[in-house]
Write a structure and sequence with these properties.
Elements lengths: L5 E9 L5 E10 L5 E7 L1 H22 L4 E6 L5 E5 L10 H4 L4 H4 L2 H15 L4 E7 L2 E11 L4 E10 L1 H22 L3 H14 L6 E5 L6 E2 L1 E4 L1 H6 L6 E2 L4 H8 L3 E3 L17 E6 L4 E7 L7 H39 L6 E3 L5 E4 L1 H7 L3 H5 L9 H17 L10 E2 L3 E2 L1
Antiparallel strand pairs: 1-2, 2-3, 4-5, 4-8, 6-7, 7-8, 9-11, 9-15, 10-12, 13-14, 14-15, 16-17, 18-19
Helix pairs in contact: 5-6, 5-9, 6-9
């Protein structure tokens, strides 16, 4: 016993039923030399303390291993009293360096102002979520009160790096921005150039090529490629039926990602085809190829963004083809109309002429440029113009054919 005649300790006992109990023993020596032992069951308290210890240990483990970010606990003076997380080391910091510091000791003023504002709000019971840029990295941060929301003891701030997500969002926004360039493009070659340049400048995929189907030769010659593609792979080949991975993708319409193209059967050049490849179909227009001299060079984000770019390019190629067909049809119609012996012209709702054949130009004696600036009634005698105008208006209003008989006037010398 101690000098005061008292001893205290704990012991573990097992009952006949197999239950384990924790007991606290207090032994006190009396004046007559006898001793009194008081036994108190502390099983519940001991279990609670054990659970609390386990919880603290798990929490500390969670904090120390929190991925791509950090966990911080602040007191009312905005002093960090606990810190951890895998993200600390990315900034060259350790837990010991952060604990005891304030945000103003570590961050620039613009970050401090926002962060401490949210910490103050959290001490008033508010829960916040916001994003901050720190250097070339982006973080999403949560601040929340610890303890009673109305009178919290501390504030916890949890930050997680979201740089990859922000870069992906920016890349998607930039890709959608290329839609204007695709719309303004007038040829398939321009679209091919826009595609490989966007892969290089927006997606940070420097080596790419676009191969467009040539119906006459029945193959896929290169239409555009980047300098980096030329440097690491060489001039893009022409893909032919049954001889290459590119043709397989074009024929199947299914994209393929080759983490190690040297192991893929059917590659065009076994000596040169090394590294990684992404090959994407461009509908029935061709294929889009992205290369790297390293194996496993592309992640899911690269693949997803490349597919988005290929989708935009495919839509642009389809538009060019449709516009080309429309131009060819218009030329054919114009040529057919010019062979007519009769006068032919199309009147707009405002009375101007939209289209006419050569026979009409010959009949009225004006050039095509002059006709384009005139109204339909200008080609008729003045006393017939009101009747012609009424007939045109009736046709436009009702959508039904209207007929009137008048003479088209050749202003200069004759009436026809």
């Amino acid at each position: 016993m101690g000098e005061e005649g008292k001893w205290q300790g704990e012991m573990t006992v097992t009952t006949a039923a197999g239950r384990v109990l924790r007991q606290e023993l207090t032994l006190t020596q009396l004046d007559d030399g006898r001793a009194v032992c008081v036994v108190r069951d502390i099983t519940d308290r001991a279990n609670l303390e054990s659970e609390l210890t386990d919880t603290v240990e798990r929490y500390e483990t969670l904090v120390e291993n929190f991925p791509e970010g950090g966990v911080f606990l602040y007191n009312e003076g905005h002093e960090c009293i606990l810190a951890g997380g895998a993200g600390l080391s990315s900034h060259g910091l350790s837990t010991d360096e952060v604990v005891g510091s304030r945000p103003s000791d570590r961050y620039p003023p613009e970050i401090v102002e926002e962060l401490e504002g949210h910490i103050r709000d959290a001490f008033e019971g508010a829960h916040s979520r916001f994003e901050q840029a720190y250097g070339d990295q982006y973080y999403r941060i949560w601040t929340l009160p610890v303890g009673d929301d109305e009178a919290p003891d501390h504030v916890m701030a949890v930050s997680q790096e979201i740089t990859d997500r922000k870069e992906r969002e920016q890349a998607i926004e930039d890709l959608h921005g290329t839609a204007r360039s695709f719309i303004q493009a007038e040829t398939s070659e321009e679209i091919a150039d826009i595609t490989v340049n966007a892969a290089r400048d927006i997606l940070d995929l420097p080596a790419s090529s676009v191969h467009l189907y040539d119906e006459e030769s029945d193959n896929l010659p290169p239409a555009a490629w980047t300098d980096r593609f030329d440097a690491i792979i060489g001039k893009p080949p022409t893909f032919s039926d049954g001889e290459s991975l590119g043709w397989e993708v074009f024929e199947s319409g299914e994209p393929h990602v080759y983490n190690d193209v040297s192991a893929a059967p059917g590659r065009l050049n076994p000596d040169a085809d090394v590294g990684s490849r992404i090959i994407l179909p461009l509908g029935d227009h061709g294929v889009f190829l992205i290369g790297s001299e390293s194996t496993d060079a592309f992640d899911e984000t690269d693949e997803s963004l490349a597919r988005t770019l290929a989708t935009h390019a495919t839509s642009a190629f389809t538009r060019i083809r449709q516009e080309q067909k429309l131009r060819e049809e218009r030329i054919f119609i114009d040529q057919a109309l010019d062979t007519l012996a009769d006068l032919f012209y199309v009147i707009e709702p405002d009375g101007t002429l939209r289209k006419w054949n050569d026979r009409f130009s010959e009949a009225v004696g004006y050039t095509d440029e002059q006709i384009g600036d005139m109204r339909a009634v200008d080609f008729f005698p003045e006393d017939d113009r009101e009747r012609v105008a009424d007939t045109i208006e009736e046709a436009v209003t009702t959508g039904c054919p209207s007929t009137t008989t008048v003479c088209v006037r050749r202003i200069r010398d004759t009436t026809t």
